[in-house]
């Protein structure tokens, strides 16, 4: 008999979660997948949780009352970027690849799509973070570009992908539509240059 999947509860974070979030970022793989520095402090996280803007959403995932991951959803800007937000996510090492990231993304994208009316969700992920890349692709994120020497991690520069997801049914063209148009334009240019 297969082991039962854990029940993962997602909720909005509060300042009392500071030490638990610090513990998430203290786990080596979780920290290495972010722009965080080693040895985070609970006070830093308490301040971040207290000073959040009204449109910032920091969610936590709990299993049996224990915080095992978090996701931040933040507006990308004002005026002409009101349709966009960025996310960042981290899951404690011992809970990676056990459904926590999926639960956090389901909750975060629900808030983005159905409550805040975001059309575009952006993220940055290191090119060597294969499990995260698979998860983001599963939720419709596509690579829009490679950021060379994006960050300094563990003594060397590492690349990252800029990824985004456009909400289905939005007015903005999907990445697939843009890619088809770009291929068509390239073919037309080639035909013209050979004639």
List keywords for this structure.
globular; 6 helices; alpha+beta; 195 residues; 7-stranded mixed β-sheet
Number of helices: 6
Strand order of the largest sheet: 1-2-3-4-5-7-6
What Rg, in angstroms, do the CA atoms define? Answer: 19 Å
- Unreliable spans: none
Strand fraction: 25-35%
Query: Which percent range fits the helix content?
Result: 25-40%
Output the helix-strand order.
EHHHEEEHEHEEH
Mean pLDDT: 88
Biggest sheet architecture: 7 strands, mixed
Tell me the number of strands.
7
* Principal-axes shape call: globular
Classification by helices and strands: alpha+beta
- Distance from first to last alpha carbon: 67 Å
Characterize the structure shown.
It is a single chain. With 195 residues, the protein is α+β, with helices and mostly antiparallel strands. It is built from six helices and seven strands, in the order βαααβββαβαββα. It has helices at 18-26, 28-32, 42-50, 100-114, 130-138, 175-194; strands spanning 8-12, 57-63, 66-75, 84-91, 120-126, 142-153, 156-166. Strands 1-2-3-4-5-7-6 form a seven-stranded mixed sheet, sandwiched between helices. A hairpin with a 2-residue loop joins β2 (57-63) and β3 (66-75). α1 crosses α3 (42-50). The longest helix is centred in the C-terminal third of the chain and has 20 residues, at 175-194. The protein starts with 7 loop residues before the first strand and ends with a helix. The mean pLDDT is 88.
